[in-house]
Amino acid sequence: MKRLYWQALGVPGSASISVTLVALAGFVLVEAFPVQRKQPFYEEKIAAARRAREALAVIKTERIRRGIPIDPASDPADSGLIGHPLTPVTSNTGYLDAKQTTVNPNFAAVILHMLKGAHLEKGDVVAVGVSGSFPALNVATYAAVHALGLEPIIITSTAASEWGANEPSFMWPDMEHVLQDKHVFPFRSTAASLGGIDDRGFGMSQEGRDALTLAIERNELPRVDSKSVADAIQRRMAIYEREARDRPIKAYVNVGGGSASVGTHIGKKQLAPGVNLEPPHEGTLMDSVMLRFLARDVPVIHVTQIKRLARAHGLPLRPGTIPRIGEGTVYVRPGYNRWLAALALAVIAAVLFAFVRSGAARLLARSEGAGEGEGRTNAG
Predict the structure, then answer these.
(1) Are 126 and 153 in contact (CB under 8 A)?
(2) H or E segment and range at residue 276
């Protein structure tokens, strides 16, 4: 029985090996020398991060001016945006590593990326819900909104979780007021609630509720008073609608886990971090401002699960110093060098052509040689 095999006519095995080695070398070169590709809206992201960096510096300067010390153990980046473990205005537990991760101006680029993912354009009205729990993320949100030229309607939940803006003399309403006075941002909150459980400081001490009320009053903000979470949700929706003045609200941005905004700690997990275009289709849903907007086909940007967001966009966890502007895959991502890939393909094609041509020449030579020999035999 004859053994069957295939081999390119006129092309020796050494030629096939050579082509394979050239192709492999081209592959290794393309993989070894990637290029950094700028991501969409690069310039806007840089502008937002620079604005956030300026805002963080202003808050830190004001904190020092007021004589509020910065604890290097809890705030290794020396940001001035990390609060205390427990004060009278602390609403619930918080995670220090998450708070430390937020002190990065490049989060402004992440939030801008989300805003553009909701197809927002300059002049669009956006509703925003923030709390005192993540002051650095509030700054990032304001910076992204400002960089895109959006018109925000902001409602603040004044209370803060552990390690947030929970210094009674310098809470988030104080911080954003300073930022407006220093001309970092041209806007601040439209109204503020006490925050915490039921969005009305339920379960907090009288001292804590008094301190929250004082923070709202000294910053001359209308107070959102409510009797329950449902009432708080309804009041917030009414404020957003009133302040929009018949203009369409194009998105809702939630930062953290304010009770009315997310619908208690259960509601906080109903939506994925990032851009949400429709409500969840499974499970029992907790009423919230987020779900109310989704029911109206208004995109919701949910800024939560901070460490997950950081990893997804190439930002460091718990940075020891304030990161430089432009660091992270939210700005640039590695990609293949198209010119190098084209060159590698051209070399491979040239080598193949050379081998095929030389093989064809040898095959033709053998054919002519065989023809001449056959002619001589017939002649004899």
Answers:
(1) yes
(2) strand 274-276
